[in-house]
Amino acid sequence: MITITEEFLNRKRPKDPDDAKEFDEKYEGKVGWLMEKKDRARAVMDQKATSVADIAAVLKIQEDEMKNRAEKGDQKKVAATKAGQKRQRIARKKEKAYAAAVAERIANFEKSLSTTGEIYKIEVPKDEQSESDLVKIFWNDVQDAHYAESWPDRVRHGELEQSRDNVMPGQSQAYASAADDTFSAVEV
Predict the structure, then answer these.
(1) Phi/psi-derived region of residue 74, left when phi > 0, alpha when psi is between -120 and 50, beta in every other case
(2) Tens-digit pLDDT profile for residues 119-166
């Protein structure tokens, strides 16, 4: 059952003094009573805390699975046969070819961004964890991250820049900071 609490009353209390007085008279002594139908529906539909906790749990499960796969992969390397070693050599060649193709695409992207007055350079961060292992979460209100009990080490929190220019060709400034080194992680 969803009941009226002090927190609920504090959030719902109107700011106008006359309305607040009327509100206080209406709800005086009703802490612990069942909420009105409309308020119960809103409380049930407010899934922010559950959603944030679910995201943290899923990321933790993925991190555990990645660690387990890495441990199993190390065991397989020891017992690799000649056929397995051949497959690994082929896979490494494909990885090098893919890395070269990505580097070429990045270079072309840098050229397309750069103008005569400004030169843009895309750098890979030199962090202990690779960029692909990190998860960046941008929050409208960074305090919402506290709904989760804990976050995996690979999660970085940042504040989403408020922007009113939501109709704009190209990349929005609010998301541009996610791609560069100016991202400031917030400890949660």
Answers:
(1) alpha
(2) 777 776 555 555 567 888 888 888 888 888 899 888 888 887 776 655
Other residues' Cβ atoms within 10 Å of the Cβ of residue 162 = 7
Q: H or E stretch including 137?
A: strand 135-139
Contact, 156 vs 182, CB < 8 A?
no
Helices of type H across the chain: 6-12, 17-27, 37-45, 48-78, 82-113, 173-176
Find out whether 129 and 156 touch, Cβ atoms under 8 Å: no
Q: What is the DSSP letter of 3?
A: B
- Whether 39 is covered by a domain: the verdict is yes
Range of the domain at 12: 6-45
**What b/e string do you get for 38-58 counting C-beta neighbours within 10 Å, with b at 16 or more?**
eeeeeeeeeeeeeebeebbee
Q: Is residue 31 part of a domain?
A: yes
* Residue 177 pLDDT exceeds 70: no
Reported as half-sphere exposure (CB side, CA atoms, 13 A), residue 84 has a value of 8
Query: Is position 104 within any domain?
Result: yes
